[in-house]
Amino acid sequence: QVQLVESGGGLVQAGGSLRLSCAASRSIYGINVMGWYRQGPGSQRDLVASIRSGGSTVYADSVKGRFTISRDNAKNTVYLQMNSLKPEDTGVYYCNVQNSYLWDYWGQGTQVTVSS
User: What digits encode the pLDDT tens for the residues 26-36?
Assistant: First the structure.
């Protein structure tokens, strides 16, 4: 069954904004860390931002000050607000959820394209 549903990707001009959402199924027990990873063309999947159940966050240096990660624990949903987008932010963004057993779950990916 589908356990992570992502939305919000698209095409935007440099300097614009997008908001990604990822809703996790209730079947995923004990969610701890929720995050977003990015995979650019021909590159590996790298962490963009993550947030723990207590609210502590981690950001890649390249997005600090421009992106904000947040979560709604009642809805099992994580968000990524992306402002001041740059062409190098282009890639497929994957939602990741890790539970208290350290099991990882991945979304199907959503394309973000930033034109110059």
Answer: 888 888 999 99
